[in-house]
Specification:
Oligomer: single chain
Number of helices: 13
Radius of gyration: 26 Å
Shape: globular
Bound molecules: alpha-D-galactopyranose
Number of strands: 38
Strand content: 25-35%
Distance between the termini: 39 Å
Helix content: 10-25%
Largest sheet: 10 strands, antiparallel
């Protein structure tokens, strides 16, 4: 049983195969966070062993029954502003009378098998019924506000998800000023926090730092989840690393402004919260209305970051991604962006396509520049009609010619955007996010369509549907190339303007829900200037993401390593591009570029019609290797062995789900003369089994590979290897 309520102790046990999460009602009223960690089927009530608070100094005793001396030391399951807890609250509301104080007390709970979809939001699901849900209903008896805390337990996945629904049962209107999806109070922690930061072409860099007194925020205020931070983080024991230590991982199934906060207070408690960013957010809730928070994903591991990552990976792959491409092998694609940019003709594209077919590529993706009069990034977004000067027979004609070559056809679109120089803008100048009377600040020469408006969402759904129905297109690269500014909507009343960022995300999700329903056979790839919106919310609609505009193999080591903390290889679009690399000017061997791209979903972004015969042969080998082993990287378990953030060497290992095949990827970032070879020890093999190295037929025992390992040269820059080991 995933969820049990023990009446005598008023404790809820949320159990997965290896973990437990325990909530306890204080005096039958206030939900406390009692425990999250290794599986534990019985614990005395906090109040009886007093370990939580007795030794703590009193600061404020508001609403705090003995033996707890201070609300400020209580491990609260859902901390609310205003009654004595001085830490960051998960919830704050403004009432009509100006009060911001809410007192939430337990009313009832419900435990059931299954899990409902969250209205209007992407959310996790289970196809095999191995999920149970607990709903704890809390109410404020003075104001009539009702809050439901939902917990879903994915027993076999070792994952718990949380979300919160607020309902206004009071007479007046309230404004939600803050609502976190999950809050976790830990009371004896000496933690580090690990989060992902970055920028354009430099996504997913890892930073780990001690949790010290005060509050840290890792957030986005740019309208999308963004390049600068990611809605994912972990708090972990100081000694935790890839294979040992307690790690508490958090993810948010959301693509807009988010906030992760980690706070250590004077009493040593550490509170970690994740949810919609309260900055520039408020939501008006009239009598009878409800508001649903996005869903947070919680993963505990007692064996370091590696286990945490594998739990996130399998959960996102199987309980979040949807559609036929969830498990289906993805096409190897050639994308013309770095090959031609805007400067292409149909015959140039077909030359690339023919060469692509020769080496085993499955799909041609036509990137930016095929519509309106777009020959640079300064016009035509919104005018999604074909440019017949470039494509004389239209998209349909090109699609037909590609099909004759033997390739599927995909296109790039940026449907959420509008160029001031477009017919769409000339006809609907108020359709963009803007503030009347103020300058409309451009970024990449474009403005953002106001997706809080139903008419705008309908226009996007209809336009994209029109193209997909008419043109036999099997893939869309869905791009979004700027951050929000001048945030205002022509339709929202003044007192709802701060709802715009969240309404935008809801509008986007409604469009994607409709399009994925109408076109289930289309593979959507998520992009936002690379990985600027690579988040679990988008994964629900699009099973893969172009994870960075930086296609340099060395930069990709950092980007893909960082992304792999939370996101599986099956979601990472990775392309081989030309050298010197267009982003950093570096020249790396084609072999390394291929090996780096084989760590994700393989594609090429190169003018193959100019590639040498030798290069084409090597690419053909890469593609055939990929097709042979892609299920190992896409569905197997991943182990990070050597971090490029710690040394000039990176190594990853994948084990197929039948445990028969092991792939070991190694990369030298910066070679040094006379450097001793690097010894790489593998993980999670069967000690007494033997494995044969397919490259040289040598046999090794599992215990040798795990204790002694294989050695790799590192006396030269950019040496890369993929070692294939088969159980024998
Ligand atoms: C963004 C994407 C690129 C490319 C360009 C086209 O920058 O990340 O891959 O599609 O847009 O304008």
């Amino acid at each position: 049983m995933g969820i049990v309520f023990k009446e005598e102790t008023e404790q809820f046990y949320l159990s997965t195969v290896h973990t437990s999460y325990i909530i306890e009602l204080l005096a039958g009223k206030i939900p406390l966070h009692a425990y999250w960690g290794k599986r534990l089927d019985d614990m005395p009530p906090l109040i009886s062993w007093g370990g939580v608070a007795e030794s703590r100094l009193p600061i404020c005793d508001v609403n705090c029954p003995p033996p707890f001396q201070s609300s400020n030391s209580l491990p609260l399951e859902f901390p609310v502003y205003g009654t004595g807890d001085m830490r960051e609250p998960a919830f704050c509301v403004l009432y009509e009378n100006g009060s911001r104080v809410t007192v939430l007390e337990y009313c009832e709970h419900k435990i059931y098998t299954g899990k409902p979809h969250l209205p209007g939001l992407p959310s996790s699901y289970s196809e095999d019924g191995d999920v149970q849900t607990l709903e704890i209903v809390l109410a404020d008896h003075v104001t009539g506000l009702c809050v439901t805390l939902s917990y879903s337990v994915f027993e076999n996945k070792d994952v718990i998800t949380r979300s919160v629904r607020v309902k206004n049962n009071g007479a007046g209107t309230v404004r939600i000023e803050k609502l976190a999806s999950a809050s976790f109070d830990s009371y004896d922690a000496d933690f580090d926090v690990l989060h992902l930061h970055g920028d354009w072409a430099r996504e997913f860099h890892i930073e780990r730092r001690p949790v010290q007194y005060g509050v840290m925020h890792f957030d986005s205020k740019c309208g999308k989840s963004g390049h600068l931070a990611n809605p994912a983080a972990a708090v972990l024991e100081r000694n935790a690393d890839e294979t040992v230590g307690d790690v508490y991982g958090f993810g948010l199934i959301y693509s807009g402004n988010f906030d992760i906060s980690v706070e250590k207070n004077s009493l040593g408690s550490v509170r970690t919260m994740i949810g919609i960013n309260s900055f520039d957010f408020s939501w008006k809730l009239k009598h009878g209305e409800s508001f649903q928070s996005p869903e947070a994903v919680l993963v505990y591991s007692d064996s370091g970051l590696g286990t945490m990552s594998r739990r996130f990976h399998s959960f996102y792959r199987e309980n979040l991604c949807r559609g036929i491409y969830k498990n289906k092998e993805r096409p190897v694609l050639i994308n013309n962006w770095e090959a031609t940019y805007f400067d292409f003709t149909e015959s140039r594209l077909l030359d690339i396509a023919k060469a692509a077919k020769q080496i085993g590529i499955d799909m041609f993706v036509l990137d930016d520049g095929w519509f309106g009069k777009r020959n640079s990034a300064d016009s035509s977004l919104g005018d999604w009609f074909c440019n017949y000067k470039k494509l004389p027979d239209g998209l349909a004609g090109l699609g037909k010619k590609l099909s004759d070559v033997g390739l599927k056809f995909g296109i790039w679109m940026e449907p959420e955007m509008i160029s001031p120089d477009s017919d769409l803008y000339r006809n609907h100048p108020d359709w963009c996010i803007h503030i009347n009377g103020r300058n409309r600040n451009l970024s990449r020469n474009q403005l953002i369509l106001d997706l809080s408006r139903q008419d705008v969402c309908d226009y996007i759904t209809d336009t994209v549907s029109g193209i997909l129905s008419a043109e036999n297109i099997s893939y869309v690269k869905w791009d979004m190339n700027r951050c929000f500014s001048d945030i205002g909507s022509a339709l929202l009343p003044a007192d709802r303007q701060r709802e715009l960022p969240h309404r935008y995300v809801l509008g986007l999700y409604s469009i994607l829900e409709e399009l994925t329903l109408r076109f289930p056979y289309v593979l959507f790839e998520n992009c936002s200037s690379g990985g600027g919106r690579y988040d679990p919310g988008m994964l629900y609609y699009m099973p893969q993401t172009w994870c960075s505009d930086d296609s340099d193999a060395l930069e990709r080591m950092y980007i893909q390593y960082g992304a792999s903390l939370f996101y599986p290889a099956s979601t990472m679009g990775a392309h081989v591009s030309v050298c010197p690399n267009h982003q950093v000017g570096r020249t790396t061997p084609l072999k390394m570029r291929g090996d780096a791209a084989l760590l994700g979903v393989l594609g090429y972004e190169i003018d193959l019609s100019c590639s040498s015969r030798q290069e084409l042969e090597l690419m053909a080998q890469q593609i055939s290797f990929y097709k042979k082993y892609r299920n190992v990287t896409a569905r197997g378990d991943m182990y990070r062995l050597c971090s490029p953030f710690k040394e000039s060497f990176a190594a990853w290992q994948f084990i197929s789900d039948d445990s028969e095949t092991v792939l070991l990827f190694t990369f030298v970032l910066n070679g040094r003369p006379a450097e001793v070879p690097k010894r790489v020890t593998l993980q999670a093999l069967e000690l007494k089994e033997y494995y044969v190295n397919e490259n040289d037929n040598r046999r090794y025992s599992g215990e040798f590979l795990m204790n002694v390992g294989l050695t790799y040269r590192r006396d030269e820059d950019y040496i890369s290897n993929i070692t294939v080991l088969k159980k024998c």
